[in-house]
Amino acid sequence: MKKVCKWYQCCPIKYFVDHGMLEKEWVENYCLIGNKKCIRYQKEESGEFHPDNLLPNGKIRKELK
Q1: SS3 content of the chain, % helix, strand, coil (to 5)
Q2: How far apart are CA 43 and CA 51, in angstroms?
Q3: Are 53 and 60 in contact (CB under 8 A)?
Q4: At residue 1, does pLDDT exceed 80?
């Protein structure tokens, strides 16, 4: 069963995947299952700044803009 992250629609990860800039596994393994281990989710919930190119596992992909 899917439990979509509440931030999914406005998350840059969705944008990057939708535009072929990032592998779809990112949304499948984090966004669409409500994975609260997502670093982006944690930072959003705490109000902490995070760049758009921060991946759910905490790594930064410099080529993503």
Answers
A1: 40, 5, 55
A2: 10
A3: yes
A4: no
